[in-house]
């Protein structure tokens, strides 16, 4: 099965199984990521207290951990929940929002790596910071190019065993050996808050139905990139685009993917 | 006054009095429920710390307690605020999101029942869990039918004195003796996150102006069902529907209700 | 440079410099204010834990503190972050949501004044409460007119050194000596939750690029008022207006401002 066909198969599996995706996320994107997950066909649950998160993480199809507005209590819950997911053999994805720019969450994200995320998705500055490189970005926005972060991403993947995604105008996905590029999207997308968080949430949905985290990550980036690219053509502005992307995920079909996806694969030699 | 006419009278009373509705709610729906309450004509306030919630609960027209993303601190505030509302004779509504699926909030919801909610609204799995039945659902989504939950709802109403609403394709509303069915809505509505939370928020508005919680609950379910049914006909997808429903609540008229509402009443014999 | 020309220059400076605006805000508007700041051209970061907020406040272009859903932990972070901003010479804006109506946040807001906000923006009841007058409003909604609050606003500005904005159908902006009126907007705007919070967030963006907080506040109120007034003419309801305003901020041009802004300036004699 080709790359694009397998993206279609993963989408069909999400819609057939409606996997429970457990999100520990930030106050900015809680609504939009829940809606994006419903639209793609998953069953989202937003649960992030220490009393509850480990209980849910053990039974969910996948866990998504996003440190965007992390508090000390939520950090404690993230440690417990990722440990529970790891112990139960459940896949989980890490979104290291603003890691590198802020000390507390940088330390936290590094601690969470011990619980073996299946996928890490960030912008170039965030991934370089986790890889021990770079300057840390400006707040939540990247100040580095995705290309510049690729070497760090490969190193981070090798060190942690996670698939690493550097999102940007072109998304790079690597497991340390294989690397893929997804070249979909639109220049208006960075004007919508938290579409990176939406990407990581969608990775939660693909991880829940797809055994290979490398393909799970590619497929989710394809879904968001394809839908963003298609809907941006007719959108009325960035707030409309936030809405249009969720509508688009609901109507996303195999034909959309086949006609629009631009994916390239490489064996990495580093 | 007939059932539909009284729903129109309650709507007019909300718009005339603009009741203060105090919400202790989750990070997913804070924006959409505040906007839904403004659209229907109420004055929402989102306040959920232990230092403030009891103070507001004593003076608000009604209190809405939603455990969707409950933390231990918020749980403490919920106990204090519902006790304050009960003591002050203020009506309050409970939304037991994911009760049955998670231990902490199941225990919390049962403790909150001691402060005598006027209305409890949940999906079938949540109501069955509160009634001591059922399997608890999958995360926040129901795995049981509303019909299956009706016997438990009647029992829960009798035991607690609350009006109990089981929402689904057909909504059941019971005070243990009387039962009503509201058969409005659209199949796309479950693809919008938190419309159940919106229903409970609207119950807060109707409770604030309507002396009989049984009718307050029916009317709120009618408003949401009618608006959802009308706006879904022309919506562009689930994210648009979230927006269209709020717009629709703003423009909701007595004529919309009279033309579209499908309400049936039964004396219950159990 | 005239008043309107300087508003255009400030807008151009935001878009050229994309200033980092640090927000400590509430769960209702976190998404919409982040999107509004992105749309106007700024780089928002939502960070509100005691461990992180002071670190970011020292380096951000401006800080915005909004007590809308304040918790004790967030209150502690607000004290630390505003002290850090003040010490580092960074401008910050205070949004005293529901101050006067609730004891905890009223005390907090008064403590935060010691860290010398550059701008305070509230509705009439909130400003009167901070000025030690008035009845405190109903929840988050004002029960007083902006005109009634003007004397209190001037006194508050003189006492604290902050520019004070009373927003309403006509917005009043005063530094205690100079007073301006911005008479833009639309009657539907109060039906959108948190547009006042959006105004304060935009003040964060203007403060980051504009040396005089009096003009920074005027310009932000002009942007929101002009965009609200233009987009309300064709909007489909309050939820659409929330979205249309963010789209409108993205497309806001100098011509829109020149054609639509209604600003009057007065030397105040009190």
TrEMBL record, chains A, B, C:
Catalytic activity: 5-(2-hydroxyethyl)-4-methylthiazole + ATP = 4-methyl-5-(2-phosphooxyethyl)-thiazole + ADP + H(+)
Cofactor: Mg(2+)
Sites where the protein binds substrate: 46, 194
Enzyme class, first EC level, given as a word: transferase
Binding site for ATP: 121, 167
InterPro entries the record matches: Hyethyz_kinase, Ribokinase-like
One GO molecular-function entry: kinase activity
Pfam families to which the protein is assigned, alphabetical: HK
Gene3D superfamilies: 3.40.1190.20
Enzyme Commission (EC) number: 2.7.1.50
Alphabetical UniProt keywords: ATP-binding, Kinase, Magnesium, Metal-binding, Nucleotide-binding, Thiamine biosynthesis, Transferase
The protein's annotated pathway: Cofactor biosynthesis; thiamine diphosphate biosynthesis; 4-methyl-5-(2-phosphoethyl)-thiazole from 5-(2-hydroxyethyl)-4-methylthiazole: step 1/1
Record's function text: Catalyzes the phosphorylation of the hydroxyl group of 4-methyl-5-beta-hydroxyethylthiazole (THZ).
Protein family: Belongs to the Thz kinase family.
Protein's recorded name: Hydroxyethylthiazole kinase
Species of origin: Pseudovibrio japonicus
């Amino acid at each position: 099965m080709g790359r694009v066909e397998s993206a279609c198969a993963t989408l069909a599996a999400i819609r057939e199984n409606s996997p429970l995706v457990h999100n520990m996320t930030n106050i900015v994107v809680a609504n939009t990521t829940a809606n994006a997950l419903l639209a793609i066909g998953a069953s989202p649950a937003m649960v992030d207290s220490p009393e509850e998160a480990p209980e849910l993480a053990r039974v969910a199809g996948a866990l998504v951990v996003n440190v965007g507005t992390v508090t000390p209590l939520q950090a404690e819950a993230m440690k417990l929940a990722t440990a529970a997911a790891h112990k139960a053999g459940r896949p989980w994805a890490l979104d290291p929002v603003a890691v590198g720019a802020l000390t507390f969450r940088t330390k936290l994200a590094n601690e969470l790596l011990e619980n073996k995320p299946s996928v890490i998705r960030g912008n170039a500055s965030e991934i370089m910071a986790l890889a021990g490189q770079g300057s840390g970005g400006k707040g939540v926005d990247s100040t580095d190019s995705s290309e510049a972060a690729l070497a760090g991403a490969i190193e981070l993947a090798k060190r942690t065993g996670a698939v690493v995604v550097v999102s940007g105008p072109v998304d790079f996905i690597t497991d340390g050996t294989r690397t893929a590029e997804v070249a979909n999207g639109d220049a208006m997308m960075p004007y919508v808050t938290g579409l990176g968080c939406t990407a990581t949430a969608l990775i939660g949905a693909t991880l829940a139905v797809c055994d290979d985290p490398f393909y799970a990550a590619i497929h989710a980036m394809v879904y968001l990139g394809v839908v963003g690219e298609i809907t941006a053509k007719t959108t009325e502005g960035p707030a409309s685009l936030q809405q249009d992307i969720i509508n688009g995920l609901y109507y996303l079909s195999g034909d959309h993917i086949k006609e629009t996806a631009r994916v390239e694969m490489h064996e990495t030699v580093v």
